[in-house]
Amino acid sequence: MKHPGKQLQAVVFDLDGTLVDTAGDFIPAVQQLLEENGRETIDPARITRSVSNGSRALVKLALGLDEAQPKFEAQRQRLLELYSSQLGQHSHPYAGISPLLATFERRGIAWGISTNKPRAYAIPLLNALNIDCQSTVCPDDVSVAKPDPECLFKNCQELNCDPQRVIYIGDHLRDIEAGRRAGMYTIAAAYGYIEGGDDAESWGADSVARSSEDLHNLIFPESTEIEAASL
């Protein structure tokens, strides 16, 4: 997709691993689940890489259980209980996000969130971090979750914008697939929660952000051009 440039109307973010670093809340929850099951704790970095894959992936990682096994769902619910007990306590927006959101407000650009995180966890997290979002779409709000683009179309309806004038940013292949299917310009958040062996460069995104601080110049490339011209 072509970058919307000065026609940009809105920016939509994935939540975990893109807008907010939430690994700090998941790590102690997974470690406690391991301890409750008589297992040794594991490398926090390994947990971090799996956060974007959700609670099912974290239970598989921690306990080696298959979803078909009788204990799986009970353990997943226990993990969610542990996570809920400290929701937002160790999470924070990535570096550069707060000033970026301030830039949106100053330029009159709308912004929203499209996440596969259930609303029961997404909204309390945003409230705990004092993040006031104009449109938050969770899997509870649509019939099909990402990579289906339904959630992004809902963001556009709530933000009153044209998908072709929207940028979507995410740290997983499904985010980029959803954004492309919605007709949006996509940015892969390579700084997010990416499994070993995966490569954000291979997702087919229009741009790749190696750090959260890169987002400003990828969203507003004309700012870099103006700065360069003034040298």
Walk me through the structure.
The chain is an alpha/beta fold. The chain has helices spanning 23-36, 44-50, 54-63, 72-84, 97-107, 119-128, 150-159, 173-181, 215-219, 221-229, and strands spanning 10-13, 20-21, 92-93, 110-114, 136-137, 166-170, 185-189, 207-209. The strands form two sheets. The protein has a six-stranded parallel β-sheet with strand order 5-4-1-6-7-8, with helices on both faces. Strands 2-3 form a two-stranded antiparallel ribbon. Helix 6 links the parallel strand 4 and strand 5. Helix 1 crosses helix 4 and helix 3 crosses helix 4. The longest helix has 14 residues, at 23-36. The model is unreliable at 224-231 (pLDDT under 50).
Lay out the secondary structure.
Layout: E1 10-13, E2 20-21, H1 23-36, H2 44-50, H3 54-63, H4 72-84, E3 92-93, H5 97-107, E4 110-114, H6 119-128, E5 136-137, H7 150-159, E6 166-170, H8 173-181, E7 185-189, E8 207-209, H9 215-219, H10 221-229
Parallel strand pairs: 1-4, 1-6, 4-5, 6-7, 7-8
Antiparallel strand pairs: 2-3
Helix pairs in contact: 1-3, 1-4, 3-4
